[in-house]
């Protein structure tokens, strides 16, 4: 109980710094990928920032591991935290959660159930799609026989993948790019199907509600 | 309350003129895209009609903004109206709503819940698909390396996109065409998944009903 | 009421002959498409059989139209019958219905609800896919620039379309072939999404049932 | 009843040996496909192992057929067993079932309903995808005009097929490869849609639960 309380208090205090670090990591990685012609010092700064952010994540993970008392139990009980430590690009996913919590604290009118599912899953899919575009573009750039020849192509490819349209006019050809693509398909497609499922449910429910509140005779 | 009443009365009176204006806009835009060889005066007429229709939409938006009392609240509370002001091609979506209201006033037998979801979402998807075909064809025509070489190709592309089949034998290559394509994927795919979801629910329900009304023994 | 009884009695008596005629039509059309090198007389026989079958459908439609008393009401109330009159290839869809009715009369154990939805929608999708393969192959054969170069290609294309995979390695290029393709996408995709929806529901339900009937302690 | 008891006892005793045999079969087949340059004796060993494993499956099927008393009833009542006898690559699907049963015997905390559906269907889809990659690669290797030129291409193709993305940059061209592809589409797509369906339901439910357990005022 005391441990549990300490863990929660730690999480509350580290929430915002870690989120800032995750955005710094994301921005530094994006700059690294999208602006390969940066002068040396700026490039080194990007790398340093990304490493520093990642060191923060690792330190946070270590502190929580120690707090928990049992290494094996913590690793098994926090699979998402372990994943995010290995793939820090996914960390900003917590941004959506934070926004929701802030709205709640301010007593703002919140979205409906389906609205929140759509917002959360949609934003996560967007973030995953952007991260996958960056990773794929990093590996495909200059690969022989690549069909993805600009970052725009990479974003276009990510959009057609997330909706499972899959035109195939541009597609990754390198092994590393394809591994990132499979990860995007596995996660992103699941998230986006949640969005369309919630949208479909919301549409049916709103039609049903309209039926019920209609005045009984020819109003 | 008075404001609310005035707003509704305004909406009831402007419904039909605005719908007519939206159809004029749609037709003028379609003519502009599909018949580039029109003689100058006719082409100018198209442009004038489209602009006039859009001016009507803007005037309606402004009147309702003033009625509402608070600019910020109106913009936040009517996101769809703001979107439709910026993308007037989507305006005929209200046609479906109007048809439904007319049927109701005439005491016609209405479609079942799933039937209405399918009709509404299906018609909206059709309209979005046609609008996207127009926009994509306008931007792809004559683009170097384009695979969409006729309006028929553009419609074929829109159909394969809406069903998420995505053959990729024809696909937009220009940035503007791809932006329209992503919009179609985001909206249209959601709408069409609502159609298939409602169809699936309707099928399961009609099989269940058949079970219940079957005579008890070997009739 | 008397009309209703007469209509049902007519339907019961014409059910089997019309089904046989629909199979004859299907077979004659398939032979016409798949064996273009048939000697003249056999080819004429095929055409004659298909026309005779279609004449039967038209006669049945006319009789039921007369029975119903009101032309407008009959056409509005039987959209599927009107569609099937215009596209007789879809007629064997009734085969599935007949099989179900026969099983019921013989007091055979019937499939569960989800099983029947999957069987009915799956068989319908199969039939639609085969009919679309025939129509597309008829129009694509010999078209300049066609990627569908054999009936096998056409079947492969139909399979990849029905599952919305849409590789696009082969795809129709003629306007008529594309119209048939859009029809297949619209109907077949809906049917197949009903199959996967029912399968998903059945899987979740069977896992839930397994939970409930498990013995309370470590059996 | 006695027969039923005997059948269950047989199944319990043969469960593990048969599972081991199915893994041996899978491994021998994978080695046969992926290492065509094996020296003769090793290659013969693979073939012998696969045949021996298949003989075990056939013997098990025969014993259960005899136990059941009626051939026709057994074949009709165990369609999956008959399928698995003909396509032994699918046999390891029972691995998932065994893992579940073992967890249950050890009183381990089990996954939630949706978690189990996702785990079971996801693992099955993975296994099907890997088996299809092997079969397709075996038939496409060296085929004229093949776009699948390595086992990696085959796995990439299977991933894009399972998610119904279907880029089409690589796709089977041989009839045998296409038959395997259609089987993967039919089974794998159904399984994966069950995964996304369960994920979507789980997401909506977890958002709903969060609503209910939220403290009443600004905590």
TrEMBL record, chains A, B, C, D:
<protein>
    <submittedName>
        <fullName>Potassium channel family protein</fullName>
    </submittedName>
</protein>
<dbReference type="InterPro" id="IPR013099">
    <property type="entry name" value="K_chnl_dom"/>
</dbReference>
<feature type="transmembrane region" description="Helical">
    <location>
        <begin position="113"/>
        <end position="137"/>
    </location>
</feature>
<keyword id="KW-0813">Transport</keyword>
<keyword id="KW-0406">Ion transport</keyword>
<feature type="transmembrane region" description="Helical">
    <location>
        <begin position="18"/>
        <end position="35"/>
    </location>
</feature>
<dbReference type="InterPro" id="IPR028325">
    <property type="entry name" value="VG_K_chnl"/>
</dbReference>
<feature type="transmembrane region" description="Helical">
    <location>
        <begin position="179"/>
        <end position="204"/>
    </location>
</feature>
<keyword id="KW-0407">Ion channel</keyword>
<keyword id="KW-0812">Transmembrane</keyword>
<keyword id="KW-0472">Membrane</keyword>
<feature type="domain" description="Potassium channel">
    <location>
        <begin position="148"/>
        <end position="204"/>
    </location>
</feature>
<keyword id="KW-1133">Transmembrane helix</keyword>
<dbReference type="InterPro" id="IPR027359">
    <property type="entry name" value="Volt_channel_dom_sf"/>
</dbReference>
<feature type="transmembrane region" description="Helical">
    <location>
        <begin position="47"/>
        <end position="66"/>
    </location>
</feature>
<dbReference type="GO" id="GO:0034220">
    <property type="term" value="P:monoatomic ion transmembrane transport"/>
</dbReference>
<dbReference type="Pfam" id="PF07885">
    <property type="entry name" value="Ion_trans_2"/>
</dbReference>
